[in-house]
C-alpha cells in the first residue's frame, strides 16, 4: 500500500496502484466505493461504463502535475489527454477535499 499527498492535503491519502493491464482495465468496476484513491499507470483516459458511483478523475503528467480534474458520472467515456501519463481516481468530491486541482504536484509515498 502507498499514500499520496499534495501541498494542500491535510494528511496522507491511502493509495492503491493499478499497474498491470488487467488491474487498469478493471479499475474501480464492481466496487461500491474506495477508501482513498486508485492510481492507474500508465493511462491517459478512463471510462465509467458499468460503475456504481460517480468518480473524480485527475490526469497527471510525467512529473505528477495535475493537468485536469473531472467528475464523471457512471456510464461515461472520457477523452484521452495527450500529455497524461497516469490517472488518479477517487469518489466524487474527494479531489476538492484533498486539494487536487490543476497545476498541483502529487507526491506518492511508499508505506
Query: What sequence of helices (H) and strands (E) makes up the elements?
Result: EEHEEEEHE
Kindly report the spatial arrangement of strands forming the biggest sheet: 5-4-6-3-2-1-7
Structural class of the secondary structure composition?
A: mainly beta
- Range of strand content: 25-35%
Helix content: under 10%
Count of DSSP strands: 7
Task: Report the end-to-end length measured between terminal Cα atoms.
Answer: 6 Å
Cα-atom Rg, whole angstroms?
12 Å
Low-confidence stretches: none
Secondary structure tally, helices: 2
Largest sheet data: 7 strands, mixed
Silhouette? globular
Q: Report mean pLDDT, rounded to a whole number.
A: 94
Structure overview:
There is one protein chain. By secondary structure, this protein is mostly beta strands. It has helices spanning 21-26, 94-98, and strands spanning 2-5, 13-18, 37-40, 55-60, 66-72, 86-91, 107-110. The chain has a 7-stranded mixed sheet. Helix 1 links the parallel strand 2 and strand 3. The longest helix is centred in the N-terminal third of the chain and has 6 residues, at 21-26. It is globular, with a radius of gyration of 12 Å.
